[in-house]
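User: I'm preparing a small set of examples for a lab meeting where we compare how different chains pack in three dimensions. I only have the primary sequence for this one, and I'd like the structure in token form so I can line it up with the others. Please keep the answer compact; I'll paste it straight into my notes.
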Amino acid sequence: MVNKDQVKGAAKQASGAVKEAAGKLTGSKKTEAKGKVEKVAGKVQKGFGDAKEKVKR
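Assistant: Understood. Below is the structure token output for the 57-residue chain.
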């Protein structure tokens, strides 16, 4: 079963990856950095969701 933290975390990771790529393409270091931060935040949130699921089992 998937919980909301897993879904939101995966969405943040994807969104961050898109921002990071857009920043690289446009040469915007600020957008690239924001994308990297968002990607990491998503990874953390998804990890938290994964841990919650393991505890439920």
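A couple of notes for your slides: The longest helix spans residues 29-56. DSSP finds two helices and no strands in the chain.

User: Perfect, thanks.
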